[in-house]
Amino acid sequence: MITTANIAEIRAQVKKWHMQGDTVAFVPTMGNLHKGHITLVTEALKRADHVVVSIFVNPMQFGQNEDLDAYPRTLQADSEALVAAGAELLFTPTPDIIYPKGLAQQTFVEVPHIGDEFCGASRPGHFRGVATIVCKLFNIVQADVAVFGRKDYQQLMVITAMAEDLSLPIEIVGIDTIREASGLAMSSRNGYLTTEQKQQAATIKRTMDAAAQHVMDGKTITESEAVAADMLTQAGFKIDYFSIRNAANLAIATADDKHLVILAAAYLGNTRLIDNLTFQR
Length: 281
What we know:
three-stranded antiparallel beta sheet, alpha/beta, 10 helices
């Protein structure tokens, strides 16, 4: 696997593959990789001849009260896992390379409406940072397809809208959430949880399953959300949001909407966990 922080080297290698008639897939990450990330690489290899992965802890998407410096950096272990998974090119830029003029003078990308609620409301500026870095990385790598996990459902919708609105020549693919045996969605943040908290955190998935079943059984969305909120509170969570929405656009669900998504975020101790569940009624 080629590892470089140089933009010109990334572009040269991808151009070489394209001139050979090969296709290229891209998996952007912030590192500290787990099985979910590796699954993205595996799925990317099914869709293209070569896979490029980026590891960049993006300062633009961290808020004032979020500790950027505390985010785990595990480049050696990440590199070994990516080699085993079949990635051929790893892009590891620094903030100075990505934002040479500094964040204050950086042109940004902002997706309206979709990114305003939920994580967008809880973490002001977060999705501006996500959209900007993903747009930059798409322009640097110039891949044919990009693969993301559906665990960050709202993020995937923001990125998809950004690519469509800006007419970017790249296909966006979402991959189902990879979970622990308990049902807990795999996340780098799980590393902050104790063994006991990890078992407790699985309550989020059970609560979403119950809420979806309530809706399918004919209960109103408001009733189902209220029961779910009580379940999470009783389990020791501090709820950020728990909402059942139209899965296509995150609009408030009407009685006629059939394809729905549950979006959930809650604190367990100091750790903020997010998850989602799509279902039909």
